[in-house]
Amino acid sequence: MLDIILPFLKSSAFNVLVLLICGTHFTACTELITPLFPISYGFDDDAQGWEGSVGCKSGYSATGGNPGGYVYGIDDATGFWYFVASTEFTTTVRKAYGLQLSFDLEQSAIDNQADADDIIITDGTLTLTHKTSYNPKTIWTAYSVKLDETAGWKKGKVKATKAELQQVLQNLTSLKIRGEFRSGPDRGGLDNVSIR
């Protein structure tokens, strides 16, 4: 049934129907009618707007993902590099308080591991970080982090409050997932990013 409903929700016929029902309040009404979650980026056709931060050469591969395609970064400078979420994904996450952020990572080697923040979210004023309990392997490694104050999010070295997490998420301007875990040359991959 879902395979029939989802294409319709993305179709122009759906937009016309919403316009007829909602009139001039199309955007607000669409947000109420269209389900935002779950949202998933499988990177099967392209990078879907995701890219690497400064410190890496990023790209897209149509094969080698978990399964299908994936986004990758190759270290080309000192310091840690990150996968940077697309504008579309970042905007959607603004309504994701209390949900799970999930993704798969891989890295080219597991020697010389180095510590850093694994997820960074910001609203442009306040920045919150999260450290996962393990680094990825050389095969696809799954992660799931709750987008609420119980998951270990930090503001500096202090535990982030519910109000701080809600503020940052509601006004989110950037979401980054660490791609570099090794001190020295490396390559990292990202796949199956979702909010549920």
General description of the model:
The chain contains five helices and 13 strands. With 196 residues, the chain is α+β, with helices and mostly antiparallel strands. The protein folds into two domains: 1-35, no CATH class; 40-195, Jelly Rolls (Sandwich). Strands 1, 3, 4, 6, 9 and 13 form a six-stranded antiparallel beta sheet that branches. Strands 2-5-12-7-8 form a five-stranded antiparallel beta sheet, covered by helices on one side. Strand 10 and strand 11 form a beta hairpin. Helix 2 (12-22) crosses helix 3 (26-33). The two termini are 20 Å apart.
* CATH third-tier fold name of the largest domain: Jelly Rolls
Uncertain segments: 1-12, 14-19
The CATH superfamily of the largest domain is Galactose-binding lectin
Overall pLDDT level? 88
Q: Tell me the major beta sheet.
A: 6 strands, antiparallel
- Coarse shape: globular
